[in-house]
Amino acid sequence: MYYVSKRFEIAFAHRLSLDYESKCTRLHGHNAVITVFCCRESLDNNGMVTDFTSIKELVSSRLDHACLNDIFDFNPTAENLARWICFQIPECYKVMFQESEGNVAVYVRDGFENAAL
After folding, report:
1. Along the 117 residues of the chain, how does pLDDT read in single tens digits?
2. Of all helices (H) and strands (E), which one includes residue 7?
3. Which of the following is catalytic: 39, 65, 86, 91?
């Protein structure tokens, strides 16, 4: 099995829909650090699991400098965003979404709980 990861940053705005009082229900922004983990049993024709540039472009083209409430019909929490990113990239099995320093959400596809990297 081959494994790769790609780490990059995006800037975004959102407001959360919560069932308790929170300042996060007001529009605010973050500079997120996202790490995408991908794997394949065999390499593609180019000798890659997937192209690093395409990983960043798939995510950044939708999320970077955007108001996520205008894009998604789900509550744009770090947890939901990690899951959404994971399903945008076929080879992806895990996403770490650091919304701010010390606040990280991780989504791992079923069956990959013990994967490397």
Report:
1. 999 999 999 999 999 999 999 998 999 999 999 999 999 999 999 999 999 999 999 999 999 999 999 999 999 999 999 999 999 999 999 999 999 999 999 999 998 888 877
2. strand 2-14
3. 65
